[in-house]
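Worked Example 4.2. Read the sequence first, then its structure tokens.
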Amino acid sequence: MDLLLDSFISAILLLKSLDAELYAIVLVSLKVASSSTLIASFLGIPAGFAIAFKEFPGKRTVITILNTLLALPTVVVGLFVYAFISRRGIFGPLDLLYTQKAIIIGQVILIIPIVTTFTIAAISHIDDRYRKTAMTLGATTFQTAIVIFREGRFGIMAAVIASFGRVIAEVGISMMLGGNAKGFTRTMTTAMALEYDKGEFILAVALGVILLMISFTVNLFFNYLQGRARV
């Protein structure tokens, strides 16, 4: 108990000192998590709209697969991407392994099912009369999608926030594809794992405090959006 308390006090002092290494790690984490969330949103939201709007053979199967992928382990994604970007892989010549780009690729694959599934759920709860009315008034498919987006914007934003929360706290992909290189691919979670292995708890606890603060803020915003969606 004394070890934890002493580490926590030292971590708070480290946070106040604006330690360069600490905040460099936080910056890398925020950069890759934000980038992967943005890319997954650009891909997943339109995909969710397309699946929700269109009727096609196997639609239920596609939705079931997406729901299953919500529980996709990060290490499985890491192994899958590693097989493609390692030196013996198809994309080996691109030298992506152990870079921030590799982490982003893995994280995008991880959260696209989250964005897509939550978008489908948000749109499915919207009264179909909005779509029919817009089309009756002569709206194009794109204009109709804008109308639906406005109605389901809180649910869609919740999907984006949930995806960000998923990648900011993951460790498997960052470790396997990023390599935990200091100042380059070291994220909060990989740094915490490294410091734990070294028996150095101060930096790990400081990063844990920051990660909890970020997660708490994300969840507060998520709950806020859910509350707005019910109004």
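Now turn to a second chain, presented in exactly the same format:
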Amino acid sequence: MVINANADLNENISKLSDKDKKERADAVNALVQIGKPAVSRLVLLLSDTDWKVRYRALEALGRIGDTSIIPDIIMLLTDEKDHVRYMAVKSLGLLNVSEVSAALIPLVNDENPYVRRAAEESIKKLAGK
């Protein structure tokens, strides 16, 4: 049974770089179902050269909810790709740890309106408003 779980993990990790957007989204959902066993593999993908892989890895990590990876996510708040910054902000909001609010404040002035709005929403959520 463990072999199948590892095969499923490997298969879904590889699908994060699929050209098909639906395949990538399905892989995220499967990785969220796998949960904490997928975290270490997902963290490695945060430095992938493909922004879509970084984006989907962040999405899965935020939804899994493992707060131990907060420093890894904070590193991507300054990513060159606005989509990645957006998902880093959103993922930190999902982790529901109020201490990350300070890291989100600079993103309220991000060049991208979606990143700005996500930062504002996450900060309000973390403040309990």
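Notes for the reader: The helical segments are 2-15, 21-34, 39-44, 51-64, 70-74, 82-95, 101-104, 113-126. The two ends are 44 Å apart (CA to CA).
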